[in-house]
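Example noted here:
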Amino acid sequence: MSTLHPNIATLRSIYDDLRRIERHADEDMVLHTAQRRTAGESGIVYGKKAVVERMNALILKSEQTLEMSVDIIVANDYFGAVLGSIRARCGDREIDMPFCGLWRFDDGSILEHWENAYDIEELDAFMDNETSETSNWVRQ
């Protein structure tokens, strides 16, 4: 019987409930947000406290409906990658979009995370209640 790498268990736990990142984040964790191409913002969040605040804000912005459905997780002592779909509901609209999360570990602690949504502009528009009627990712 093979056992899963502990960093796989960590990532499963986080994707089951994003608030759990606080348990596993290094105090100096760095988050590279999916919005890193946004003008006027660096797209980088520094420190465990700021990362936790960002995750909580994202959950609130989705009206507490944010769900990260995982298709596959691979991880070793140093890196992890997660493929899946991000889902959320706002009113009568629902989004379902592919994502890829990349992670860097040191001795089981998360040092860095790169968020990647397939179409970040569309995801942001959905979260801001500005989705066009021609969206490939939003159902009404």
